[in-house]
Amino acid sequence: MKVLFAAWEMDPYFKVGGLGDVVRSLPNALSQLGVDVRVIMPFYKSLKLEGSLKKRVAKTEVLYGKKLQKVIIYKVINSLAKVPVYLVQNKKYLDVATSQETFAFFDKAVVDIIKNKVINFIPDIIHCHDHHTGLIPFLIKNSNLKVKSVLTLHNLAYQGFSPVDVLAKLSINRSDMRLSKWEINSRKLNFLLEGIIHADIVTTVSPTYSKEILKEMYGMGLEDVLRDYRHKLYGILNGIDIDYNYLLHFKHVPFPFLEPDEKDRAMKHYPVAEGKKLNKQFLQQQLGLKNDETIPLFAFIGRFDAKQKGIDILHKMIRRYALKNEQYQFVILGTGDPDWEERFDWLYNFYPESVSCNFVFDTKLAQIIYAAADFILIPSKFEPCGLIQMLAMAFGTLPIAHKVGGLTDSIKNRVNGYLFPEYSAKKLFETMEKAVKIWQKDKINHFKMIKAAMKEDFSWRRSAGEYLDLYKKLIAR
Ligand code: GLC
């Protein structure tokens, strides 16, 4: 079976968020199950290609805006990403990912490359990701290609809009596309909506999110359309790259620790409880927090995005409930909205021994935090899947999370973490208090939960198996 992934980002070449991790790991896991997977993405000027083998493999022309545009295709392989990646180069549209036209052009280029057999790879299925590749399913059908299409929704909050004129540039008849009333009235093409309508199968990155998005609260205006197409909607939980992360774990964590029955791993390591204690001490010192192992240390790692990541209730909880008598410590790591950064900074100014703010993207510090914190807070308002909880659990840190989306599917309340059902600072704090009580007074139970968390199977192998079943079903149709 041949599958071509189309996406706008892929770690380690170019990464903006969790999508980049998925596009690095899932193809690799699928190829271990015997699928011939390749990835196609735009060749931005800023791609990180060090350590990769790059070869020019083809050249072609793509008709866009009534002009033939020169396109060169490179093939790269990297030891982390493993599967071959085709990079599509065009100086005018693909050098920088600035506008929606970048993606209109890219989508057309991908379909033309398949149609004209420009590369030596004709996929059975093209697997598209998010709005950037949302026009591909329609363009495939419109070209009468026998290729099936799958669209994965990583986050409905980003839909990708472009003036309807882009259709003329793509040489598409509006009537063929059957635009929605909304698109005609606003004169804007919604890439994600078009992808949902025309893909053969639509997936979300967790089962719970696939149900939530049928409701107004999470559907971001697409709930009606999604309900119409629910027969082709599936939810598959993402995974984490255990090996990749273990590798990083031992590279950056000062006191690596493992479950006793994982002794076969050849590295030197500490027992879990001791390792966590030493790492916490190290982190408290490094960040200038009060050096005291009896104070529970809570971490938040994530984008500073108040619409999704719950930083509003996080801030309110710290300010209103948690810092009264400085019995809690917080380490915050992430960048984003400057207004929110300033508000968190204010907390640090008042309580420098209890709050540490790090407004950077720092994978090394993230690893140390995962290993050192007692708990990780994930108060997201919505979360299609979420990676942080799985990484934290692999590092023996219990998540305290809002019961939504992929958080619901990966965390079992009171078994390997804590879930709170209602989105509020108060509920978040009450759940923290419960968790701290067990941490202080019932160590046996706390470490039982840590063990359960570390043992969870979040491997990509499991997810890849589910995708493979879906691909098989689709091809058999
Ligand atoms: C988006 C979602 C996140 C998900 C990631 C990868 O970033 O917000 O929940 O984990 O995509 O699918």
UniProtKB/TrEMBL annotation:
<dbReference type="InterPro" id="IPR011835">
    <property type="entry name" value="GS/SS"/>
</dbReference>
<feature type="binding site">
    <location>
        <position position="15"/>
    </location>
    <ligand>
        <name>ADP-alpha-D-glucose</name>
    </ligand>
</feature>
<dbReference type="GO" id="GO:0009011">
    <property type="term" value="F:alpha-1,4-glucan glucosyltransferase (ADP-glucose donor) activity"/>
</dbReference>
<dbReference type="GO" id="GO:0004373">
    <property type="term" value="F:alpha-1,4-glucan glucosyltransferase (UDP-glucose donor) activity"/>
</dbReference>
<dbReference type="GO" id="GO:0005978">
    <property type="term" value="P:glycogen biosynthetic process"/>
</dbReference>
<dbReference type="InterPro" id="IPR001296">
    <property type="entry name" value="Glyco_trans_1"/>
</dbReference>
<keyword id="KW-0808">Transferase</keyword>
<keyword id="KW-0328">Glycosyltransferase</keyword>
<feature type="domain" description="Glycosyl transferase family 1">
    <location>
        <begin position="291"/>
        <end position="440"/>
    </location>
</feature>
<comment type="similarity">
    <text>Belongs to the glycosyltransferase 1 family. Bacterial/plant glycogen synthase subfamily.</text>
</comment>
<comment type="function">
    <text>Synthesizes alpha-1,4-glucan chains using ADP-glucose.</text>
</comment>
<dbReference type="InterPro" id="IPR013534">
    <property type="entry name" value="Starch_synth_cat_dom"/>
</dbReference>
<comment type="pathway">
    <text>Glycan biosynthesis; glycogen biosynthesis.</text>
</comment>
<protein>
    <recommendedName>
        <fullName>Glycogen synthase</fullName>
        <ecNumber>2.4.1.21</ecNumber>
    </recommendedName>
</protein>
<feature type="domain" description="Starch synthase catalytic">
    <location>
        <begin position="2"/>
        <end position="227"/>
    </location>
</feature>
<keyword id="KW-0320">Glycogen biosynthesis</keyword>
<dbReference type="Pfam" id="PF00534">
    <property type="entry name" value="Glycos_transf_1"/>
</dbReference>
<dbReference type="Pfam" id="PF08323">
    <property type="entry name" value="Glyco_transf_5"/>
</dbReference>
